[in-house]
Protein 1
Amino acid sequence: MKNTVKIKVEELNIKTFKPFGQVVLGPIGKPNYKDISWKSLFPVAQTHLPQGELGWVISKKPNDGMMIEGMEREPEIEIIWPTDKSIIQVVSLSGNLNDHSEQPDAKSAKAFLIKLGQVIIMKPGTWHFAAFPFNSKEASYYFITKNHPREPGWKNVAWVPFKNDKQLKVNF
């Protein structure tokens, strides 16, 4: 029987998300260019963009909270950007990308609320689950990352299971 680790959704902020990557919380600071009908704030984050692809996910809200039994990770950064409603992104600390027997740790997992106008840039190797709606039945988001094969050794599973037979329950 799996042991359940319960986590609560927390507000996204620079300090608490730092172990997992960077956040863009919206336009702050003075514009570097502006005109009558627009202004530009550049840059708002420092990162390299992977030579990857833009994806679009449409996710549905789970019925009874969210039970998560595993996660995936990317060898490059991954950018998550909500398009129509707020989403919840669950992450866990990265480990050694060269160790393909590694599994995510449910004890280091956190769930962050990402509002419209906010973006996260996950570090390479950050374990994560697919984002899901916060306060709606359905939400969509863009993701940008480099396409890659499934984690070697875990090719036949959708998600690499948590170590020590754990699972997560996200309360929101």
Protein 2
Amino acid sequence: MSEILTKGRLTALLGRHQMETGERWSLRRLADVARVPKDFVYRLDAGDARYVELDALVRLCIVLQCNLTDILVWSNDGNGDQSI
């Protein structure tokens, strides 16, 4: 079954951000800087977001300097294997 996976993606991107900048951010700090609801960021990172606002995703990508595909991973087998 195909699905879009997000679990742990923001945490991984925050780790990359820390490596590049030396700044350690929490999910709450990310939400504040990106001006998106913290509940949305927590649900997205937990893989529990049922509704995704595209403007919020764009703001997260701008702050994290990433692409949408770094956050949203399409999986055909449910195991997180990317196959677009």
Protein 3
Amino acid sequence: MQQAVQALKRELPGLLVITDVCLCEYMEHGHCGIVHADKHGATVLNDPSLKLLAQTARSHAEAGADLVAPSDMMDGRVRAIRAELDRFGFVQTPIMSYAAKFSSAF
């Protein structure tokens, strides 16, 4: 994702790039977060997943994404992403609402 964003921005610097911030495509289990499995089954761990999602969103912004658009279902994801982006100087990078993304052509 990050290499694709960099290539797009290099070739088309005026292109508005919106990235999907999600982990499921990178996880062998297909869930959008870190999973803990035990004898009772599997649980998606919300708070550790938030940290990873926030770092992922930051890496997209560092690569040149103009907007980040989370599509995971972790509680507190927007707050975690906003804090991470702000902490690394991406205070002007918007976060697209999942509702807007889901209900549109994005």
